[in-house]
Each structure stands twice: as structure tokens, then as C-alpha cells.
Write a structure and sequence with these properties.
It is built from nine helices and eight strands. It is α/β, with parallel strands linked by helices. Helix 6 links the parallel strand 5 (141-145) and strand 6 (170-172). The radius of gyration is 16 Å and the shape is globular. 45% of the residues are buried.
Length: 239
């Protein structure tokens, strides 16, 4: 297993500088991460910095590869919508995602409306996700963050069922902002719900190889972390 091909190399803190984004892209080229995950303001810069990069890209195993998806196997560009709170209006999330795609993003990690979910307003949750899905089209990957740390087991199951129904590609455990992150127990629960329909991205608090491996074994197929270099270097010692 080449764990680098499962890592979204992430840098989402508000204090990030251009030089740090350049370093992120350089590391992604060197280690072959599947994507960089950055705030929307950095998408255009990453597009320039990652031109000509070459890694073993992944394709969706559970549906045909859309013809519009980038086929050059370069490091992908992932960005966020409604991040980190998920409390923007659906129109704002959709427009933010639409602009990011025009700037060169390949993947969108949106934050679901967690308050609506907890209140049982499932129609609003569904409309929120569909707004972003429609804005970016089916050719781009959509991941939906549900912030598992604040949800009950029933809410985690229900939100994941909605995400599947709305045509997203991933359910994502956490933003990594303000709450505890991914757990093995949560990933196992989500895997029971998704089966082979969609995939799971584990994120938040993943800082070493052993933690990443446990989450992958539990069912995650993508890892969101700012410790990608450390994880890959540790994995090589276990190879």
C-alpha cells in the first residue's frame, strides 16, 4: 500500500502564508499525495504550482469515471466550502464551490448544516448538499463533512444516508477545527452505512502512521491531515 496516494495533504489554518502553500505543493510533488487541501483563496496558486506533477491518481471505484474529470494523474486540488462551521446559506456554499472549480479545484469538501441535522430538518440538509453538487457538476468529487464528534450514532447514520442519496462521493468525519477528529469507531460505523456506495474520508487529529493505518483498516479510503510527510516517512520504516 502506498499510503501517500490516500492522503489529502492539508493546510487550512487561517494564518497560512503563500510560502507555506508553496511548500505544501512541493511536498505533494515529492511524496505523491493524491491532493493538496487548501482554502479557496489558494486554489489558483496551487493550480500553477502543480502543473506537470505526476502521481498515481485514483478513480472512483463504484461509478464510471466521468469524462470531464482531469485525467493527467497530477496532484489534485481540493478545497472547502462553508468551512469550518457549515452555517453559510446554501447559495453561498454553492457559489463558493462554483468559483473554486472555475479557479481549478478538482474536489470540494463542504461542511453540512450540522444544526439542521441535529434538529431533524433533513430536508434542509439535503437541499444544502444538492446545491453544491449541482453547482460543481458530477465530474468533480464532492465530500461532505458531518463533524462526527457532535452527533449521536443515529445522526451519523442518517446524515450518511442523506449524503449517499444526494450523490456525493465521500462522507468526511471532521473539519479538525474545534472538536475531536476521526475515530476508528466512527469510521467503522460509517463503513457499515456506505458499504460500496461511496467512500469515507477520515480527518482531524491524524498525526502518525499507526493512526492513519488504523483508520484505513476500519474503512477509510482517504486521509485528511497536515502531517502527511511524517506519516509517509514513518510508513517507509514499516515497509
Amino acid at each position: 500500500m502506498n499510503i501517500a496516494q490516500m492522503i489529502d495533504h492539508s493546510l487550512l489554518k487561517p494564518e497560512v502564508t503563500e510560502e507555506e502553500i508553496k511548500k505544501l505543493c512541493e511536498e505533494s510533488r515529492k511524496y505523491g499525495f493524491v491532493s493538496v487541501c487548501v482554502n479557496p483563496v489558494w486554489v489558483s496558486l496551487c493550480l500553477d504550482l502543480l502543473k506537470g506533477s505526476s502521481v498515481q491518481g485514483e478513480s472512483l471505484p463504484f461509478r464510471p469515471e466521468p469524462s470531464g474529470r482531469r485525467q493527467d494523474k497530477s496532484v489534485k486540488i481540493c478545497t472547502v466550502s462553508g468551512f469550518p462551521l457549515g452555517t453559510n446559506k446554501s447559495e453561498i456554499k454553492a457559489k463558493e464551490a462554483e468559483i473554486a472549480i472555475k479557479d481549478g479545484a478538482d474536489e470540494i469538501d463542504m461542511v453540512a448544516n450540522i444544526g439542521a441535522l441535529r434538529a431533524g430538518d433533513f430536508k434542509l440538509v439535503e437541499e444544502d448538499i444538492k446545491a453544491v453538487r449541482n453547482a460543481i457538476g458530477n465530474e468533480k468529487i464532492l465530500k461532505v463533512i458531518i463533524e462526527t464528534a457532535v452527533l449521536t450514532k443515529q445522526e451519523k447514520v442518517k446524515s450518511t444516508e442523506i449524503i449517499i442519496a444526494c450523490g456525493a462521493d465521500f462522507v468526511k468525519t471532521s473539519t479538525g477545527f474545534g472538536y475531536s477528529g476521526a475515530t476508528v469507531e466512527d469510521v467503522k460505523l460509517l463503513k457499515k452505512v456506505v458499504g460500496d456506495k461511496i467512500r469515507i474520508k477520515a480527518s482531524g487529529g491524524i498525526r502518525d502512521y499507526n493512526t492513519a493505518l488504523e483508520l484505513i483498516e476500519a474503512g477509510a479510503s482517504r486521509i485528511g491531515t497536515s502531517s502527511g510527510v511524517k506519516i509517509v516517512e514513518q510508513s517507509r520504516r514499516f515497509a
